[in-house]
Every structure is written in C-alpha cells, then in structure tokens.
Amino acid sequence: MRIAHLLVLHELRMLASLALWVVRRTHGTGDGGRAFGYARGQGAMMFGFAFVCVVETLTMSVLLRDYPIVHGVVLVLDVYTVVFVLALHAANVVRPHVLDAGSLRIRRAVHVDLRIPLEKVSAVRSELRAAHQRADGELDLAVGAQTSVTLELTEPVPHSNFLGRRRDVRLVRFHADDAPALVRALTQGQSALSAGVPVPDRPA
C-alpha cells in the first residue's frame, strides 16, 4: 500500500509539473536562489518521442476501430503515454537545480531532490562524462546520457529515491545546461559562506 501511495504521489507531481510548464512557472525557485536548468539537451528527443506516441495512437485507432472495447482501452493507454512523456519533460524544465546562500539543490524531474550544504562540498568541477559505471557512494544523474558537473563531498549525505529507498552518497555527477556558470556560482557561494558575507544573485 505504501508503494502504491508513493506512485500516486509521483504521478500527481508529474501532472502538477505539466500544469506549471503550461503557465511558465517553476517549482522551488521563489526564495532568492539561483536556478540552473538541465533539460535543454533532451527537449528535441522528448518531443520526438511524444510525436511517435501520437502517430501510434492514431494508427491504433484506425486498426482497432471495429473492436470498440479494445479500442477504448488502448486509446486511454496511448493518450496517457503522450501525457506522461510531456509531463516528464515538463518536470525537468520546471524543477531546475537551485543554488542559494547555504546549499545546492540538485534535482532530476520529480525523481530526485537532493539538497547538499555548501560546507560539505570539497570539490566541484565542470566535467563532461558520457559513460558512468555504478559504484557505491556515487550518484549519477545523466541527461541525454551525459553529465557535465562533478561534485565531491567531505562526508556522505543521505539520498532517497521517490520510492523511499535510502543510500549515502559522497560523489554526485549531474548535468546543467550551463555547467561552467554553475561551477563558478557554487565556488563563489562557498567563498562567501566562508567569509560570512551574502551570496550574490549573479556571478561577477
């Protein structure tokens, strides 16, 4: 029952993201933090996939027109698939990474929402990687099969997936559309935090 509840919440967050995307709003960026998007590189692929799903929906409607019950079931599933693909892209767009005065919030659609205190970051670099081998203590959040930022931590931070499974991570690789800008802003944020001064909204 708990897993079913989590899955329902996951679907509702996806649909809420689609609604935010339609009205051109973002989630979790209204408290003065700086947002960094990561969905630019996969937009064409997602829209292409959605187009293929629409073509399949129309094709199946023609093939199953003489079987109304089957046609109705398949139509609902096909339409839901199109909505799901659009909602997945929308979730990536409206839930960007967010850097504020004390932490970096790393996100991936509605599946990942990891907040890392800046004082726990030991090293950050812009690093394009297209191949990732799963290892203990590492979290890879690829977009378009690649990551562009590598974050090393001084100590493990807990990460829970959307089903509630928890593990500790000490290294995070993720993607940002403007990786160098994120790295510069995060480095400035660490320096400002160490000096006890406010973090600027934009890098100098």
Q: Would you write up a description of this structure?
A:
It comes from Streptomyces resistomycificus. Keywords: Membrane, Transmembrane, Transmembrane helix. The chain crosses the membrane at residues 44-63, 69-88. This is Membrane protein. It is a single chain. The chain is of the alpha+beta class and 204 residues long. The protein has 2 domains: 2-30 and 39-94; 99-195, PH-domain like (Roll). The protein has 4 helices and 8 strands. A hairpin with a 5-residue loop joins β7 (147-160) and β8.
Question: Could you give a quick summary of the protein structure above?
Answer:
This is Membrane protein. By secondary structure, the chain is an alpha+beta fold. It has 4 helices and 8 strands, in the order αβααβββββββα.
Write the layout of secondary structure elements.
Blueprint: H1 2-22, E1 34-36, H2 43-63, H3 68-94, E2 97-99, E3 103-108, E4 112-117, E5 121-129, E6 138-141, E7 147-160, E8 166-174, H4 179-195
Parallel strand pairs: 6-8
Antiparallel strand pairs: 1-2, 2-3, 3-4, 5-7, 7-8
Helix pairs in contact: 1-3, 2-3
